[in-house]
Amino acid sequence: MTSVGSVSSKVIGKVTEFKPVQKCCNFFRKDPEKAIAYSTIASVVGKDGIGCYMYVNQSLNNDKIPEDKRKFVAALDLTNGILMIAAQLALFFGMRKLNEPLFNKIFQKSFDKGGQIFKTISTKIRKQQREAGVPVARKIKIKKEYNNIRKDCLETFKFITELAAATILAKRVIVPFIATPLAQKVKDKMENKFDSKKSENKVEKDNDDKHEDDNKIEGHKDEIKSQEAGHNSNLLSKYKHN
User: Fold this and answer.
1) Which pTM was predicted?
2) Using 50, 70 and 90 to split pLDDT, how confident is the model at 53?
């Protein structure tokens, strides 16, 4: 009997042979920081997109909501969902442009553009190595390690700030701030549209009722004329007979 692990490994092995999966794996190997950041924001936005669809669909088919209000509630859910996704993407990519300058400003005492910090660190390391009686590292090697540390710090900083901007600032601060007045405008617009339609239907109904009353009056007049005509003809017949 084939084990579950064996079957799973074969399936996963076949999946990894697909070109899109291979491209994705190469992207992660080539630039893991960007790949992780993009995949994370994609999962967050995807979750909100599915949630938006489910909320809208639920509002349109919710028996507890009056039928004439369902479209309005669904419109609010859709507006909120679109704002949520758009704001998160905007702040995520906006932060990617601002991250490095912001990092340089915040950590200028650790990583400066002029290289004075590196010179100080390099001199201190080489001095400590001499005093310890160990081989003194070359400046180029220390520089490489220094740059690697800076790169790791910058990538971590970018990852945290981008996701914080998307999931905290955009989702919990900006979107509610915008969505509340926007929802009120949508509500007013839809209610005005509903009242206008209701008024039009009332006028239409009144016109139909009036038309029906006019038809009844005309029919009654025709009936009276018919009766009068019949009565007159009977009188003439009577006199003619005499």
Assistant:
1) 0.65
2) very high
